[in-house]
Amino acid sequence: MSYPRIALASSSPRRRELLAQLGVDFQLVKADIDETPYPNEAPRLYVTRLARQKALAGLACLTTAMPVLGADTIVVANNEILGKPADFAEFNRTMQLLSGRSHKVMTAVALVSSERTLQQLVSTEVYFRTLTAQDIDSYWQSGEPHDKAGGYGIQGLAAKFVQRINGSYTAVVGLPLCETEQLLQQWQEPV
Ligand SMILES: Cc1cn([C@H]2C[C@H](O)[C@@H](COP(=O)(O)OP(=O)(O)OP(=O)(O)O)O2)c(=O)[nH]c1=O
């Protein structure tokens, strides 16, 4: 199966590496958008909107027409969206919410052109063991939490906190490969 050449609207090194795993020919494009949620916006609507807006922002920057892929990842606990922690206090509060229970990681992907939008939401349940104050302190000191939704990276040092997951590992890291590949295949099908 051959895929269309696409642009990836992302500055995330994880997304770049994951997309490369599919063997897709792609270029990078910037996608800076305002990530503020609308008042009372449901997490699943928020994450899907952001993936689409990133892709559309990328599309607006292109000089050669091609489909643009955007993605967004959020961590949700108690129906609250836990973003990238701005400081230790926020990180500590996030870790208290995640400790000893399960939460959801939602990743949305959107593939857009000026004529079409294909999108998909993938939700994965992640189970954390109970975290000690020492776990939380030393994980913060590692520098890993800063640029990650929910303040952790399952692919990094936080792997030792994760007892199990129910869903897509690649979606937790930032790009669900099975669903992304299906969107690319669907793009090639006659409409
Ligand atoms: C939960 C989790 C998130 N993350 C990352 C994936 C995303 O890069 C980041 C969530 O933030 P996003 O806002 O989805 O993405 P981003 O700002 O990093 O990149 P982009 O330019 O595409 O907008 O958190 C991990 O790497 N591992 C994890 O286990």
TrEMBL record:
* Organism of this sequence: Rheinheimera pacifica
Which Gene Ontology cellular component annotation is one that this UniProt entry carries?
Answer: cytoplasm
Q: What Pfam families does this protein's entry cite?
A: Maf
Looking up NCBIfam families in the UniProt record yields:
maf
Family as reported in the entry's similarity comment: Belongs to the Maf family. YhdE subfamily.
| Active-site annotation | 72 (proton acceptor)
Q: Where is this site: Important for substrate specificity?
A: 14, 73, 155
Q: Which InterPro entries match?
A: ITPase-like_fam, Maf-like
Catalytic activity field: dTTP + H2O = dTMP + diphosphate + H(+); UTP + H2O = UMP + diphosphate + H(+)
Record's keyword annotation contains Hydrolase: yes
Required cofactor(s): a divalent metal cation
Localization in the cell: Cytoplasm
Q: A GO molecular function for this record?
A: dTTP diphosphatase activity
EC number in record:
3.6.1.9
For this protein, the record's SUPFAM superfamilies field holds: ITPase-like
Key words of the record:
Cytoplasm, Hydrolase, Nucleotide metabolism
Enzyme class, top EC level, equals: hydrolase
GO BP terms: nucleotide metabolic process
Q: What does this protein do?
A: Nucleoside triphosphate pyrophosphatase that hydrolyzes dTTP and UTP. May have a dual role in cell division arrest and in preventing the incorporation of modified nucleotides into cellular nucleic acids.
The entry's protein name is dTTP/UTP pyrophosphatase
